[in-house]
Amino acid sequence: MQRKTFLKTVSAAALAACALPALAQISVEVPFYYPVAVGGPITKVIDGYADEFNKANPRIKVTPIYAGTYQETIVKALTANKSGKPPATSVLLSTDMFTLIDEDAIVPIDDFVKTDADRAWLKSFYPAFMANSQTGGKTWGIPFQRSTVVLYYNKDAFKEAGLDPAKPPANWKELKEMAHKLTKKDASGNVSQYGIQIPSTGFAYWLLQTLTTPNDVLLANEAGTQVTFDNPKVVEALDFWVNLAKEGVHPKGVIEWGTTPKDFFEKKAAMIVTTTGNLTNVKNNAKFDFGVAPIPGNVRKGGSPTGGGNFYIFKKAPREQQQAAFEFAKWITQPERAAQWSIDSGYVAVSPAAYDTPALKKYGQEFAPALVARDQLPVSVAEFSTHENQRVTKVLNDAVQAALNGTKTSAQAMKDAQREADRILRSYK
User: Is residue 326 one of the residues assigned to a domain?
Assistant: First the structure.
């Protein structure tokens, strides 16, 4: 009897010993919400990064979950957070930072920064991108797919109009003059090619910032508690946009974000203003010689809002998931990967070190437009963001669209938006 007991004990100990290596390989699951509504090249790239990271870190399994648009992704992430089962990490808009803090949904990145190497990495990002990633002395987001707004223009159309394709508009006066020369009409008098097109669905506030920034005015304070919609410089910027349509060089009414690149490809618009995130799309689909230029200046020399998404780490995720998510965010933003991501996607590489890599140096020499967004960063400002950001942004989007549709003057639209935003933000002042 004693011998049987002894053998059982030995067998149990042996089995436990054999299981130890297996236990060491058990993965930490890292659910990762990523904002893309359809499959295709970007999902394949993200899947590839996750697979590569998982192979290099066998105890961790990062699983990308494609959660729709940015707006749909934050709704899903916050819903999952309230249910107690959030993703470990998600790429969400940099402008969602205040919303995520107010919902107590995320933890500061600083909590995971322990070593000198970690601290050096955190300081390696472009300051312009950190403006929408830090507040209250803490870092809440890690820049990943970041962008600025740029001007794309059809060089062939410039030549046809007698314009120098090497000289895109440098200021508002030149932009308007060139837009008139580039606008074409058919035999019936209908416009077949507009000189300029600026989309106004989805991100109307962002495109308004593309005009307010060169006009030397910010739409919100740094704390996200006060807006300046009714500032005369903001009204002037919106009026400039509205008047382009009134003068017939820009389509009337509200213009779809998603169809603007297509209108450029189809030569319905000779110049378009949109994200540098469309750069690879334009490179692959424009069947004509095109250029990319910084946003034209006015009171100040150019300037664009930054844009795009950050990595955030969710507070209710288990600590081991949070730590693994931090390691993934750190891994994917290393210079070589940030460089390749920029080449693959068109987004701006998030650190100067990425532009010093052989891959991005070579790409920049072969394809100069890839450097325009980077070169614009010194005069870029933080993307518009406030507390109650979704509500306040909708107020501003609606006001911009009302002015473009002609249902309100620019001054009245901004006055009404200011009053409503003040009401929403009252408790944060």
Answer: yes
| Pair 77, 90: CB distance under 8 Å | yes
Q: Residue 348: give its domain's CATH number.
A: 3.40.190.10
pLDDT of residue 346: 85
Alpha-carbon torsion 153, 35, 310, 366, what sign? Answer: negative
pLDDT for residue 345: 85
Q: How confident is the model at residue 277 (pLDDT cuts 50, 70, 90)?
A: confident
Its pTM stands at 0.86
**272 - beta bridge partners?**
152, 197
**pLDDT, tens digit, 9 for 90 and up, residues 95-104:** 999 999 999 9
Residue among 351, 95, 90, 47 at smallest CA distance from 219: 95
Is 347 contained in some domain?
yes
β-bridge partners, 171: 297
Q: Is residue 107 part of a domain?
A: yes
Structural domain including 263 reads 149-305+382-428
Q: Which of 379, 335, 71, 341 is nearest to 201 (CA)?
A: 71
Question: What angle, rounded to 10 degrees, do the helices at 335-345 and 358-366 form?
Answer: 30
Instruction: Tell me how many degrees the CA angle 148-305-341 measures, rounded to the nearest 5.
Output: 25
Q: What per-residue confidence (pLDDT) applies to 9? A: 42
Does 165 share its domain with 80?
no
Structure tokens at 363: 């790409």
Dist. CA 70–CA 87, nearest whole Å:
15
